[in-house]
Structures are given as structure tokens and as C-alpha cells.
Amino acid sequence: MRGWGARLIEILGTRAAGCMHRRWCTCPRRWRKQASPRQPSADGLVAAGGGAAIGLAKIIARERGLPILAVPTTYSGSEATAIWGMSEGERKFTGKDARVLPRTIVYDPDLTLGLPAAVSAASAMNAIAHCVEGSGCPTARRS
Predict the structure, then answer these.
(1) Three-point CA angle 23, 79, 81, nearest 5°
(2) Maximum CA pair distance of the chain?
(3) Which residues, in sequence order, are CB contacts of 142 under 8 Å at separation 6+?
(4) Res. 142 pLDDT band, cuts 50 70 90
(5) Pairing between strand 83-88 and 68-72?
(6) pLDDT (average), residues 96-121
(7) Which has the closest alpha carbon to 17: 35, 42, 54, 34?
(8) CB atoms within 10 A of CB 28
(9) What local confidence, expressed as pLDDT, does residue 141 receive?
């Protein structure tokens, strides 16, 4: 996906404030500052990738009040909820905040066609779980 991120930066040109190329299961607290847009004038976030990429954008959106345009590459479901999550060591903090709900979602089926069948199936189950959680999650919780 690194090449795709570079292509996105090329398309956005001078409007791009930065790009984060990392893979993780949950958003580690220590990465949020690294991933924040380097330009204080940034007026939005483009989260392109799986649930972790969208999750990181949610943390930044929550802290900076920036809108998110999500381009999911898996069926995480995270792009359609106001639920955020962040990890620190063995602990995970989660909550629900309307500021982190992406304002725009761009679904491009071509981005998911290359997924192996097992990843696609697991990803789809995760999306269903996110949808169920999003419809019944309390306003905030810590676990």
C-alpha cells in the first residue's frame, strides 16, 4: 500500500500534510504525534487503508477537530462508526465521539479485490461486528 499512499500524496500535491506508513492492530498512543499533520493549517484527513489507518485518523480528528475522508481497503466497518480506540502497552482505551465519524466514505471495490479469501472473510466478519457495536455502544467506555 506504500505505493498507493505515495500516489495519493502525488494527487493531493501541496494540499498533502504528510503520510503515515505503518501497520498495527490498534493505534498505539506513541504514534499519534508522529502521525499528526505536520502543517498546522491542515483542514482535513484522508484515511486510506484498513481499520487501523482509519482508527489513527480518528485519534487525530478527535484531538485536532479535523474532518475525515475515509477510503477503506478492507471491510473493517470502522469507517462507518463514531467509535475510536487507542492502545498503550497492554491496555486499550475506547470511546464514542461524533467528531471521529468520517464525513465522507469512498468505497472502491478495486481496492479490495486483491485480498486473499481468508482475509476478505475475516475482514467482513469484523465489519459486521463493528456495525453491531456501533449501534449499541455506550457513549464512552474504557477497557
Answers:
(1) 120
(2) 41
(3) 93, 94, 95
(4) very low
(5) unpaired
(6) 87
(7) 42
(8) 17
(9) 45
